[in-house]
Structures are given as C-alpha cells and as structure tokens.
C-alpha cells in the first residue's frame, strides 16, 4: 500500500435500507462506546459519499471529504482524543447524499466509512451502528443555481433532539446496512487527504442594516413560495418594535428582541462587513412552527439582500434556505457552503405568545467562515492609497477562494475551472499550495477519452466523455497552468504525470492542424470567458457551418507548447521538448501569416467559413504578443492599434485583462496600466466592493462579486511595481526589475516556497534606491528600473560599493526571458542604488 493511501482493517462502508442513490437526502449515523479512561491518542479515519459533518460527544470535529473523482476517493484523519472522556462516548455523523452532480459534489451512491483506533479500543463502521433517514430535511427542495444544486429546507419539528449526545436512546433507529461489494463504488485503498482542513472562524455582523415587518399584503398564501421569492416579494412595513438592536454585532450583550404588532412576520438585514465563504447561521428563540427564511447575497437593493437573480445567462439564481422552528431556543447552521456579504432573515407564521405578543429573540446571526491555513501570504503597499485598497480587495478575493476546493467564485458557480488567471493569482498570493496541485492532478485524472480536458470537475453536463459539450479553452490552458505551478511553486514529482497529460493534449490538438498550419475545427464551445473575442462557433445561432479558426487559441497553443517544452527539458525529456518547440515555431509562423491584417494593423480574431473576422480585440492581440507571433515591430504595431479606441473593436474585460497588461509590460508599453486599474477597480470600491467582481458591470448584470479571475492587479503589483518574476522553478532564481510608473515608493513581500522575497524602493528624479531581502539558497538578478524618461543608468551600487552591470537573463513577462544589464545577489539583505544617466 502506498504511503499516500489508507485501507480500512476493521471498518466497512455502510448505509441504510432504502434508496442507494437519493437525489437529496441526509442520513444520521451514530455509535456509542465506552472507555475506561481518556486516551492519549484516538485516531479516526472517515469518508463519505458525498459529504459528512462529524461530531464527537456533540462537538464538531470536521467536514469532508474533499471532492474528487470517486476512483480516487479521499479519507480524512483526525485525532479526537481531547474530545473523549472515561465512560460512555458517542461518535455521530450527518451525511449528505445528493445523487445529481453539482459543481462541488461527485456522487456514486450513499455511503459512510469510519475507523476508530486507540490503545484501549478499536472499532469501525458496520451493522452495529445506528442510522436514520433525517426526515426533517426536505428531499426535493428547489435548486439554488444549476451549478450549486439544492437549497436546504429543514423542519426541526420532525427532528430528534439530543441525537448527538452519548445519553440518547437510539434503540428505535435502524441498524446500518453494510454496502456489499463496496469496491464497485470506491477503491479499497482511499487516498489520504492532501490539503489541510479548513479553520472555522465565527463571524458576527459589523452592522445591522435594517429591520421591518414582513407581511403578505394579500398575495397567494406564503406556503406556495420558495424562500428567495418569498423574501424578494415580501411587503415591508414599519409596525415592528426592536430592543437591544446593537447587540447584533456583539452577541455577548444579550439577544436582540423583535416584536411585531400587526403582521404575522418580521425580518432583519445584516452586513458581515466583507465577502466571505462558509456556513450561515442564526441562533434564536421562537415558538414552534415559525418559518425562518435565511437569504444570503453579495449585493443590496434598497437595503434588502438581492437573493433572486436572473442574469444574462437566463439561469435563475435563488440564494435562500428555509428552517421551521421546533420551539424554544435553537441554532441553525446551514450544512453546505455559501458565499456572501449580507444576510437577511425573515420570521413568518408568528403566533401570539401567552401575553399576546408576536416576538422573536435573536441571540446571534452570522457566518462560520471557512478559512484555509496558509504558511505565507504576499503583501504590498505603496504611495498611492487607492492602489493599496485595490490590493486589499484582490488579497481578500484570494483568501475567500482559498478553500480545500478550487472554487472560481464564492456564490453562484463554485466551479473548479482550469484557467491561468486565477491560478496565477493564487500562486502569486500564497506561493506553493497543495490545493493548487490537487486541482491540477484532478484534471489530469479527468482527461476525457478523446484527450481533451473537461470544462469543470465535476462536470455537470451529460456528455462527459467527449469534447462536444465542453468549453475548449481548458484543453489549451492546462499545459500553461502546469507550467505556472512549476515555475512559481517549484518542482514536484507529480509534474511528470501532468506532463504526460500535456503530451496527450498536444497530440490531439495536432490532429486538428489544417493545411494552413493552424488549429482548425476543434470541437466544443470556443467561448473565452467574457473576453468578447469573435468566437462564433460558440453561438448556438451561429451561421458558421464548415470551418472555424480562432486566432487566440492558435497563439495560446504556441505559448503552451513553449512553456511545456521548458518544463520537459528541465525534467530530462529533451526529445519531447525539441518536438514541441518545433511545432510551436511552425504554428507561430503560420498564424502570423494567416491572421495579420495589414488593413487593420492588428491580428484579427479568426476566420469563419473562409471569411475573415471583422473583429479586432485586445485579448487576441495580447496573446499574439505573449506568443510572439510576429517580429517586434509588428507586435508593437498591434498593441498600438488595440490601445486606440477608434481602431479596437473589443477591449479586454476585467477577468481577461491579465494577458493584455502583461503584453503591454513585455513591450514596455504599459504606462497607462495603473490608470486603467484605478478606473476599473476604483469603480468597484466606490460601490462598496470588498472582493473583485466578475465584471465591472457585475451589479447591473447579476454577475459574481468575488471572482478569482478578476484579481489580476496582484500580478501588476508584484511583477511590475515590485518587479519580482521567477526565472527558475519556485523562485530559486528570480529577477527584480522595478517599474514604478507614477508611484513614488512601494514595499512588499512576495510569498515563495523558500520564504519571503522582501522589496522596498523609493525614487527621486535622479535615483532609485532598492532594499531587497533574498530568501535562503536563492539568487536575485536585479536589473535597472523601467522608468519613463530614464534613457540609461549612469551608475549602480550594491551595499555601498559601485557594481558593474553585466548581461544576465531577466524576465520581461511570465513566459519570456531576455538578456539585459543586471547585477546578481545571493541570500540575505541588500541595499542597491541606481543613478539616472
């Protein structure tokens, strides 16, 4: 057995009689046992299909497992010794089985496995365990979004209080049923969890936004409405009386008391202060039968949570869940993860108490935030306060997204895409991270039978084993993302496996190289993440029938081939590297001939049914520059064209700007980049953003307000303002070439696998001084700064002594290295000064 695997020795997969594959069911398991004394160590291995919430003696131990391809099911490990006592103890679990795939669940059939080992006692899940269908959970509530899956509806009048305690009498529960032939569903050897468990941080609101009466105003009876629609359509009144409202931010000050005098409902809205990801909760006291609808959202409309959305995709989004009170004081924590900044709770069906008052006490409301432990985190500040605030929302975006699952956004999709921008920002923020490598490995294992890479994992589409119903860009992107992981995160034995996946990708794409020497008629959708590129085959109403070529993907293939070749060479696969470099040269030359438009003085977006696209876009021409499709004069011309609003048809969107800004920097044409960042992200900040939006029009178009794709200013701040770009894997060797633009000073530290790279610089009209700390066993290549108006550097000094500048490799982009005058320094602190020539 591999050291990375675990096989149960005295535990079996269990379920209970009835449905093996329910659409949306919760099951409770428990096992009471006796110990003579508190153990020094008690190890639990646990997994489930799909999700478990584990308790020991009523305390939450953890959640899991990480979603993976069921062929590589993972198991979690906990030491629960501190939660055990001498005498009777109980282990219990609440398990969700949702047979329909969602963006975060990959079910096979219902199952749960647990093994307990201590010096005194060992046991495992088997038919002696007790089990119960948790009928208090609605089996078929509406979907929240088509990616996320079902809402949570919970009627605690049907629940069995106390089932988490050792004293609970479970004799009336069913005996668990052992899953026969469990290896048909899950491997005998489960893979040990590779990413750390998330931390649980209780977040209370930062303010009460409002409270109100909630009436029906003569509508159809409320029972006909699902929570989001009920909340959105509620008639808001003012017949409410509230005591101790300020305690909503400080629960220890006692409950907030809300009393309604005329209507049968009341509501409140709170602000959590910033976007977060986790488990909304509310603790309250109310009579039995009171219905609580709890909405979560990223935006407000007239001081109400926007929880019912119909975006441009026409896929309705309904961000609310429902709970029915059992009476008395109780706490509801939603089982599955949500992303939100705002919560809105409605209490309906209020009945007068013995004093004739319709009253609810709220002891606490908020979010149990899911937060990943991190070893290091990049930091940045500069002379421009707006830039500092922009860095803050980029950092917060990456913190929210940093889960045990690589979510693209916090709220709507929570999909795992393989896509370079968010991966680059993740690596830029945290350095090496196991979650990122887990993602790459999952896509490697999920490679389709025809060699293409699936759009997402899990795939929520029917035709999984073909590219026909997939987006094509993950196939082009996967080699590039593997390269970024290698370059930023350092070498890993798994890169060999990933390089084999790249080889299969290239082989299948080579089969689509047409007589003109470029990719042609590749299958699937060519939509490119809101870029605006003319990719008409992705339009179901397209008139394209016979042939299609997309310039962006031709350039992307060139870039991916060259990056993979560099990795292959470093791993000793020289013949592979030569083959890929040869293919890159041939495709580059063909794309340059085929897609350059002398009339438009830029690269056109593509050719469809033999007709040249009329569209010229910034994203296509940015890729042409990064892939170096033409000579330097042509590339400069292309960028000048697309920087001219009169000549460019499609500017880059927020989540595609990384390529464009990097292309500008590569050719020293990026003077306007800081102003553009301020414009785009200043608009978000003015609207109250705490994370980066999917689009600058996110609020108008019902798009996401926490998207990793859009956090690209991180790249500008580290690569340009601090000037740090890796030259060798893991930043073992890195270049520093500061581009101050309009900043007077900047400082920061860059997270790498070897420690922090610390940079601080300040400039005057005549010089730039740089303080640099190089991590142990690393080397920095420091080139003169890129400052407008500086024609040359007259002198350079290192730690107080003049130092000659000699030619060295220096990164001019993430993907391109050139030779420039520079000096080299080893580990430790250094003071460097460049004098203007």
List keywords for this structure.
837 residues, Jelly Rolls, globular, Glycosyltransferase, single chain, 12-stranded mixed beta sheet, alpha+beta, 7-stranded antiparallel beta sheet, 49 strands, 13 helices
Description:
By secondary structure, the protein is α+β, with helices and mostly antiparallel strands. It folds into four domains: 5-195, Galactose-binding domain-like (Jelly Rolls), CATH 2.60.120; 200-371, Galactose-binding domain-like (Jelly Rolls); 379-721, Glycosyltransferase; 724-836, Sandwich (Maltose phosphorylase, domain 3), CATH 2.60.420.10. Helices cover 21% and strands 32% of the residues. It contains 13 helices and 49 strands. Strands 14, 18, 19, 20, 21, 22, 23, 24, 29, 30, 31 and 32 form a twelve-stranded mixed sheet that branches. Strands 33-41-42-43-49-45-46 form a seven-stranded antiparallel sheet. β37 and β38 (611-612) form a beta hairpin. α7 runs antiparallel to α8 (574-595), α7 (551-570) packs parallel to α9 (618-626) and α9 (618-626) runs antiparallel to α10. The termini are far apart. The model has no long low-confidence stretch (mean pLDDT 92).
